[in-house]
Amino acid sequence: MDRELLDNKRISERDDKFKPQDDQALCKESKEDKEKEKNLVAVLSTTIGHYFPEFNKWLKEISDPREQEAIDFTRETQIWTGIILFLTKRGARKKISDEMRTKEFCENLKTLSAQANLERVAHGDAVNYAYMRFKEEEFELLLVKMMRRLLRVRALEKYRLLGKYYTIAIDATGVYSFNYKHCEQCLMREDKKGNKKWYHLKLQASLVTWDGLCLPMASEWIENEAKFSKQDCEIKAFYRLIEKLRRLYRQLPMCILLDGLYAGEPNLKR
Ligand SMILES: [Zn+2]
Fold it and tell me: CB 3.0-4.6 Å disulfide test: which of 44, 136, 177, 262 passes with 258?
């Protein structure tokens, strides 16, 4: 086992010890909560520093159409705020205003984002404003950079099937659903009672491991065409996704895991 792998093992043991709990209260004033908060930031900062030492540099490369002279929060800070919202399962941006705008949280955010002049945490609406303007495809490329790095430093070696293939699961996942026709690309489903729902699905390819990791590699929207069935749309998205995986991860030995929908000869040939 080489040094890189030993280090990775140590990091994951430490992660287990300090695993953040669901809805961990990051900013309440109790001593126990403060300790947990310190642990979460320490784990995040150590893990990111170890696996992705250039993470903040990558964030800086994401285009930010906001007026740069007028902003108080860098894109790194706003992205980190969003990441913590997600990790601590604070779904609503109101939560930022209620729970996250404390001095302690601000110090932690400063450590993670490296914004030296950070004095307060943004209002939830400002975080939302920034995210609405970032480009989805650039965030997908950020994930690709992260995956490429993990592959390059051989952090995922032990998960290779037969010592060679990375196991990549591909399946559709629901992203939005509406009670009305939201756009021309919406897929529509009608139940037996005639109730209609319009929705958007994404086909997601993720590297999955025997101990439960699921690491996103690439995705494709499943889009409506003039005449369609869910199955046709998903299969077409699958062809696009396979091409994308080949383009983004050249020469990567992959074993693709699929459900019964794909068990037709044309798909197997691809
Ligand atoms: Zn739509």
Answer: 262
